[in-house]
Design brief:
Shape: rod-shaped
Oligomer: single chain
Largest sheet: 5 strands, mixed
CATH architecture of the largest domain: Up-down Bundle
CATH topology of the largest domain: Rhopdopsin 7-helix transmembrane proteins
Number of strands: 7
Number of helices: 14
Protein name: histidine kinase
Strand content: 5-15%
InterPro entries: HATPase_C_sf (IPR036890), HATPase_dom (IPR003594), His_kinase_dom (IPR005467), HisK_dim/P_dom (IPR003661), HisK_dim/P_sf (IPR036097), MASE4 (IPR033424), Sig_transdc_His_kin-like_C (IPR004358)
Keywords: ATP-binding, Kinase, Membrane, Nucleotide-binding, Phosphoprotein, Transferase, Transmembrane, Transmembrane helix, Two-component regulatory system
Organism: Rhizobium meliloti (Ensifer meliloti)
EC number: 2.7.13.3
Radius of gyration: 42 Å
């Protein structure tokens, strides 16, 4: 049994939107204009006779009704709704009754007469066709408003569809048998191929009335897209009957063709709308599948980013600790151990260990907005502390450091560990960029105050610089220009800076190299 919330994704329970209501009104209005023209100025106009029209018309109607029935049976298999089963059977009825109708139609297979029955049989099959489908629509409207326990089919889907098709076939055979075998006993509604009997309205009016009753019931109980378009079909049925009588249609005249065109439209409307809605729902489903796939890929990228972030962030303090440990061991292994230098190296190891622990604790806050520990800090002191941490690597690669700090810089509010990580990453990237080429190696770190009250920091180098094609990509996660890079450093920096309500950008340095600016930390006074 389908879950109630699933009903909103099947066609028979989709509420009609404003656009569909307007389209339905436009269809009705357009067909009324066609009726007015065919029954008025063009009434009696006799265009060229098309003998293949009736077989083609009947075949198209049979195909339309059969496909509509199949789609509705598919809806029934999802919802188990008795109402859907009834209206699907109605379309089976209209498809099957077309077979005896075309066999009885004069002149289609045998000149001047039908294969079975005669003119009266054709007319009575026409009445049975329209009255029968309208009765199915009435059954649909009544059952869909019944108690919830009575709306659903409790048996198997296959048995229900088989029983429905079998009973509908029996009904069509019975109607065809009565119309053909008892043709002489039925009221005479046709005088000949050109004239209708005066008794036609007495038979046609009740058939049209049944269609009007179905239309009213649908109007009272309307709720879904299917209800709306069945109302249009019943309206077309209701006007098709009188059009078949007045003006008296000569076969293959304009008004005669108009009646058949209305019948074809009434047969096609529900099918067209259902196919359109199926396409729309398929598009939505495809969009949802793609969204799920993108979400899954985003989670995978996020997982890779977290793993790369951990490796990237922890690697730097660990490398510093290893360097300090090697230096400490060298100081101790000298013939005359240098205890003061060894002690300084071991203090650097302790500081690096604490910093690594702080980095690990801060990794989660890089990806989340809550739980950040922010405090007032002196950004110039943070720059000096970071330069001190990197002093060994900078000296090892013979990099000259220029620190241009604005001493009037106010205290700022931020996460000390995260902001230091930004400085470490930017300085490390600058250092790696400079050692890749020959020439002067100058690292310039500057702080300054912006006019808007924000504090800015810039890290400039004289290295390889950034290619124009990479300017917009260097901050993307997992993008790197280094053979052993992880592509997370600058992405982390941008995330941290933006979390501090600022921005990070890069610019070329003159005569070579690159400058990274970030302006993110608000001053205490701001």
């Amino acid at each position: 049994m389908a879950a109630p919330e699933e009903e909103f994704f099947v066609l028979s329970d989709l509420s009609p939107g404003l656009t569909q209501k307007r389209v339905a009104l436009a269809v009705v209005f357009g067909l009324l204009v066609l009726v007015f023209i065919a029954a008025g100025p063009l009434s009696g106009v006799q265009p060229r006779r098309i003998d293949a029209f009736v077989p083609a018309y009947t075949t198209a109607m049979f195909v339309n009704d059969s496909i509509t029935a199949i789609l509705l049976f598919a809806q029934f298999s999802i919802l188990r709704s008795r109402a859907i089963l009834i209206i699907a059977s109605g379309y089976v009825f209209t498809a099957l009754i077309l077979i005896p109708w075309i066999l009885a139609f004069p002149g289609v297979f045998v000149p001047g007469r039908g294969l079975i029955g005669g003119l009266q049989s054709t007319s009575w099959l026409y009445f049975s066709w329209h009255a029968g489908f309208s009765m199915f629509v009435i059954g649909y409207a009544l059952v869909k408003g019944a108690d919830p326990d009575r709306r659903l089919w409790r048996g198997t889907v296959g048995a229900a569809i088989f029983l429905s098709v079998a009973l509908t076939t029996v009904l069509v055979l019975a109607a065809a048998y009565v119309c053909v075998a008892f043709e002489a006993m039925l009221p005479r509604v046709v005088l000949d191929s050109l004239r209708l009997s005066p008794s036609w309205p007495y038979v046609g009016a009740p058939v049209a009335l049944v269609s009007i009753v179905a239309l009213v019931l649908l109007w009272i109980r309307r709720r879904s897209m299917l209800d709306l378009w069945l109302m249009v079909v019943m309206f077309l049925y209701a006007i098709e009957i009188p059009l078949s009588y007045y003006p008296t249609p000569v076969r293959f005249s304009i008004d005669w063709y108009a009646v058949r065109i209305i019948g074809f439209f009434s047969s096609s409307l529900v099918l067209i709308v259902m196919l359109y809605e199926i396409t729309t729902l398929y598009g939505r489903l495809l969009g949802a599948v793609r969204g799920r796939r993108q979400e899954r890929e985003a989670r995978m990228v996020t997982g890779e980013a977290v793993a790369a972030t951990i490796a990237h962030e922890v690697k730097q303090p660990l490398s510093g600790m290893i360097t300090s440990a090697d230096a400490g061991l060298r100081f101790l292994n000298r013939p005359l151990p240098d205890l003061e230098e060894a002690e300084a190296a071991f203090k650097q190891i302790v500081a690096g260990g604490h910093r690594a622990a702080a980095v690990v604790d801060g990794i989660r806050t890089i990806f989340k907005t809550e739980g950040r520990k922010r405090a007032s800090l002196d950004l110039n002191d943070l720059i000096r502390e970071t330069l001190a941490l990197m002093r060994g690597d900078l000296a090892k690669h013979r990099i000259r450091v220029e620190a241009l700090m604005d001493e009037r810089l106010p205290q700022v509010v931020g996460d000390r560990v995260q902001l230091q990580q930004v400085l470490v990453i930017l300085m490390t990237n600058a250092m790696e960029s400079m050692i890749a080429i020959d020439g002067s190696r100058v690292l310039c770190v500057a702080s300054h105050m912006h006019d808007d009250g924000h504090v800015g920091v810039s890290v400039a180098d004289t290295g390889t610089g950034i290619g124009p094609e990479d300017t917009d990509r260097i901050f993307n996660p997992l993008f790197t220009t280094k053979s052993d890079g992880m592509g997370m450093g600058l992405s982390i920096c941008r995330s941290i800076v933006e979390a501090h309500d600022g921005r990070l950008w890069a610019a070329p340095n003159m005569p070579r190299g690159a400058i990274f600016h970030f302006s993110s930390t608000r001053s205490v006074s701001a």
